[in-house]
Each structure stands twice: as C-alpha cells, then as structure tokens.
Amino acid sequence: MKHTREEMVNSVPQTGFFGHPRGLGILFFVEFWERFSYYGMRAILVYYMYDKIINGGLGMEQTTAASIASMYGALIFMTGIVGGWLADRVIGSRRALMYGAVLIMAGHIAMSLPFGVPAFLASMFLIIVGSGLMKPNISNVVGGLYHKSDDRMDAGFVIFYMSVNMGALASPFIVGALQKNYNYHTGFLAAAIGMALALITYIIFQRRSLGLVGLEPSHPLTADEKVKYTKVITISVIALIAVFVITYMTGGLTFGTFSILVTVLGVVLPIIYFRMMYISRDVTSTEKNRLLAYIPLFIAGVMFWSIQEQGANVLSIFAKEKTQLDLNQLFGIDFTVPAAWFQSINPFFIVLLAPFISSLWSKLGKYNPSTPLKFALGLFFAGISFLVMIIPAMTSGSELYNPLWLVLSFLLCVIGELCLSPTGSSVSVKLAPEAFSSQMLSLWFLTNASAQAINAQLVKLVEPMGYTNYFAFIGGLALFLFVILLLLNKWVTRKMEGIH
C-alpha cells in the first residue's frame, strides 16, 4: 500500500459530525438512503411478483414469489464475499462502494419501468451485484476513519448502524403508501430516487470528507496472482455462461432449478469455509477447538435468520392475504393499512429495545448469560414468534387475523435478534483464527445467506401444509434446536477455550 493506516486516518477531518470524523456524516447519509431503497423495494417486492398482471404485477404464483424473494436475499449476502475480496485485492473499498451504488441505482430504475419480467430480472441482477460491492465495503470505510486505539470507534459504528434502522423504518411507510395510492412502479421509483440521493452526495463530498481512506486495495494482487486469477475468473465466467446457455436451450433454466442451485450454494459455501480454516497449517490446536465451538452457533444462526427473514416473504404475504387491514372493522377508524407497513415493525422495535437489551447485559455483570445461552435465547424467541401465530388460527377459523398478532410475532423475533445478532458478530471476531480474522466475519454473514438459500425451498411448504402447520413446523424446529444448544452449552463453552 502507498499509505499507512495512520496516514489515511490523518487525511480525514476528525471533527464535524457530532464529535466524530466528518466522513461519518457522509457515510451515514449514504447508508440511510441505500437502506431506504433496499427495504422500501423489498417491502412491496413479493406483492409485485404475485399480484395479477392487470393490477400491475407479474402474475407469479405466491410460492414462487416467496422463493424468489429468499433467493434474492441469499445472493446479496453471498456476493458480499466477492465484493469484499475485490475491494481488498483489486479496486479498494471506495471504488467498490461507488460502483455498487451506481449498479443499485440502475437496478431500482429498471424496476420502476413497466417492462415486466425482463426489467425485473435485470433489476435483480444489478441490485445483487451492486449490494455485494457496497454492503461490506461501506462498513470497512467507516472503520478506516478512526485510529485503532480511538475510543470513538464503537460509538461511531453505533451511529452508523442507526442509519440502517432509520432507513428500514421509514421506507416501507413511504414506498407502501405510494404503491397503495398509485402503483408498484411509483413505489420502486421512490427507492431509485433514494439511491440517487445517496450516490450524488457521495460523489460530491467523498474526496474532502474521506481523505485517503479506502482508495487503495489493502492487500493488492501481485503480478503472478493477477495472471492466475485472470485465468481462473475467465474460465469460470465462460463455464457459467455455457451452463446458462445449455440449460436455457434444453428448457432447464427455470426459477425452480435456479432456486435449488442457490440452496446448494448456501449449504456448500460455509462447509468449504470451515474446512479451509480447520485444515490450514496457520491454525493452532486452540483455534481449531474454537472453530468446533463455532459450528453449533453457526447452525443456530442459520435457524434464527431463516425465521427472521421470512418476515419479508411468508409473513409479508400473510399480512396482505390473511390479516384484517381495514381498521374500520376493528377500531371504527376509516383507514386501510398498507400491508407493506408491517415491514417497518422490525426496525421500529430494534430502535426501541436495543438500548434496553444492551443495558441489561451490562447490569447483569458476572451473571451475564454465556454466548451459547444468548444464542439459545435467540432461537427460543424466534421459535415462539412463529408458534404464537397458531393461537388466532385456532380461534378465528376462516376470519382474518387481528394485525396485533402479527405485531406480537415481529416483537418476539426482534427480542431474539437482539440476543443473537450482536453476540454473533462479536463472537465471530473473538473465535476467529488469527490467520482468518477478517474472513470469519464473512462466515458469520453467511448464516443469513444460508438461511435465505434454505428458505427458497422451505417457503414452498406453505401451500401444501397451510399456514398453521407451517408455523408449527418451523417454530417447533427452532425450539428443538434451542434444547439441543442448551444441552451443548458446557461443551461449547469448554471448546471456546476461555472466550466468553
């Protein structure tokens, strides 16, 4: 690298945003609008896919729509691994971030155009690739604003991640209202405008606010590696194109076969990651024990995210089709709730409850639950969030559900998320072998990718099983793993070799 970390940090104005580096304000704004565009589009995406063509939708089956929504989420997390590698080895975080923002904006613009399935597929491709470039690298740039010994760094990340929840909270209200009062493409256009605001702000202010941070790859390829990887990537791309052409010509290129491929990738990728680290000569015996301890935590993470991410497809469809949205029928209020608004419940409760959960862990002191127990609590609340949906089904018959049951389900899952998600990020860093310190966090992100890849198949069970049996099955599976993790608590704690 041409510049040391100290030189890069010193090139950034260290005040200007509530006592933090000026660049944090720019990145906060960019992330807010990027998350606004992502969660706004996702809030109405599944409806757009299965709504009738006459209503402006694509006319897909509900099961197919839910499966595609899961594949979409899985691929975004999977491409993040590629985006992180490209930034570290080839183009640097800043260029990766900007290229990603351009592709995401183009994807939302494509979705706002009334060109049916071709525009939809183009949009999905652009947003998946763009998110893979942007998602891991904007966080990396945030960390680069501070010296490693700077006490402000943790607080800076808290401020930054607030932008994620603020964007996720606001966008379903706006995009959902636009879709309800106008049409789907108007809602998607709002997401495109949000992303455009993020990109314009970044282009104008990034140079003076971010200095030298992220301009260069942290571990650039050597000349020999460039030749090697060029050959590998070229051959891989040609092979991939050949597979797509052959399957298309033989009629095998369908959403169903593609969903199976994504599911296989979701299962195989973490196995490859684990094996690569475990057999590495750079990993000590102590670190191998910690990797073994990480396996049940990883599986618990996959189970949790499987339930949490179904809030954007299974529960999203349930909100529209099975929930009483006409408040006049419930409270005598002349208003019909847009189904997309339910997507704001999760970030609302996170913003509301996060300070209390964080304070609780601090106050418990030596009685603070161990990492495996926090994971177990996450599974417990996630499982209960699905099982609670059985209660109104047993009493309401064919009537529409009271929306408060859905609110309760989201609330329970958020409590589980606050137990498991921050702990997962933290323990991934703590248990990481020294030689794979950065890649271990990528492995943690794969819990979400694997969960959504598996969901691409799980959601197909809703139709044959019915909602009641489906909620019971998934919720029961989570509680089963909750019990298993409780039984493994001492073993996992012992294998963690002093890490808590």
TrEMBL record:
Gene3D superfamilies linked to this entry: MFS general substrate transporter like domains
Protein location: Cell membrane; Membrane
Domain of life of the organism encoding this protein: Bacteria
Signal keyword on record: no
BP-aspect Gene Ontology terms: tripeptide transmembrane transport
GO cellular component, one term: plasma membrane
Membrane-spanning ranges: 65-87, 117-134, 155-178, 184-205, 232-251, 257-279, 291-308, 340-361, 373-394, 470-488
Keywords: Cell membrane, Membrane, Transmembrane, Transmembrane helix, Transport
Keyword Transmembrane: yes
GO molecular function terms listed in the Swiss-Prot or TrEMBL record: dipeptide transmembrane transporter activity; peptide:proton symporter activity; tripeptide transmembrane transporter activity
Membrane topology: Multi-pass membrane protein
Domain Major facilitator superfamily (MFS) profile: 1-210
UniProt similarity note: Belongs to the major facilitator superfamily. Proton-dependent oligopeptide transporter (POT/PTR) (TC 2.A.17) family.
Protein name: Peptide MFS transporter
Species per Swiss-Prot/TrEMBL record: Macrococcus carouselicus
